[in-house]
Amino acid sequence: MLPELKIAQLRHFVWVHELQGFHAAAEKAHRTQPAISLSIRDLEGKLGQSLFEKRNARAARPELTPFGVQFMAYAKELLAHHDRVIKDMSLIAQHKSGHLRIASVPSIASRLLPDILTRFIGDATDLHVSLFDDSSEVVLAMVENQQVDFGIASLWEQDSDIRFIPIWEDSIGVVCRSDHRLAGEAELSWQQLRGERLIGNGTSRLLAGTEAEELVADAQFYMSNMISLLAMLEAGMGITTLPRFAFPPEHSQLRFIPLSEPLVTRDIGIVCLANRSLPVAAQALFDFILRDNELDPSAL
């Protein structure tokens, strides 16, 4: 059976050599000189060889034996590897290192996550982040396939291995060009949209099961890409319905008008695999988002 070498003993050995004395090594280790001598003897016993030459003069500087010279390189290599692992794991434990993978619906990815991630990451230059933005269905699939640590979505199947923690509430509104006849309204009902040329999109399904369901069926166009949808709206092709978070607030040519009848809202939250722990950085971000929205992580 191979002997188990203690990190502390390796440090004592290196310090005695580098500091040229047992007394100096004892001061650095905050130990007594006899304790350092005992540590070295125990290490020599495990190795089966002397590390330092025997000297009669107590004042003489300790000199390595030929075996000690060879072992010194290994001792320093072991200590460097040990310290590197401890440092890396410490950074990971403090979510300052590692790789964080998140999938999110585009509305949250573009509107909220930039500020959240900027404040969360801070000066952690060794923490790498991969962010994938796509539909709720794709986000859920990435979570289920363990391609990401967790996702942010508005749809999930209750009878599945996915856990959903609601964070934000989003309301549906009508988006039209600023010169459209409806642009001056403070709020709208679905009846006011009859006769308008409607452009459907991926979020139009939120109207399903409501009084406004016929608007989805009557949509003349369908755009799956947000950039294309906004371009069609800018061109005056028609109007659409969108969650507020999905509407770019800085857009000068388009207007968002709340839909009051029916009042349609959606919950957006974190989706992750149930009964599976998150990586350290992902758990830290999860808790950060909860606290940021005044939710208690320990209560979930």
Automatic annotation (TrEMBL):
Transferase among keywords: no
Stored InterPro entries: HTH-type_LysR_regulators, LysR_HTH_N, LysR_subst-bd, WH-like_DNA-bd_sf, WH_DNA-bd_sf
Name listed for the protein in its UniProt record: LysR family transcriptional regulator
Organism this protein belongs to: Pseudomonas taeanensis MS-3
Entry annotated with the keyword Lyase: no
One Pfam family in the UniProt entry: LysR_substrate
Gene Ontology molecular function, alphabetical: DNA binding; DNA-binding transcription factor activity
CDD domains: PBP2_LTTR_like_4
Domain HTH lysR-type residues, every copy: 5-65
Gene Ontology CC annotations of this record: cytosol
Keywords, comma-separated and alphabetical: DNA-binding, Transcription, Transcription regulation
Family membership: Belongs to the LysR transcriptional regulatory family.
Stored PANTHER family: HTH-TYPE TRANSCRIPTIONAL REGULATOR YBHD, NITROGEN ASSIMILATION TRANSCRIPTIONAL ACTIVATOR-RELATED
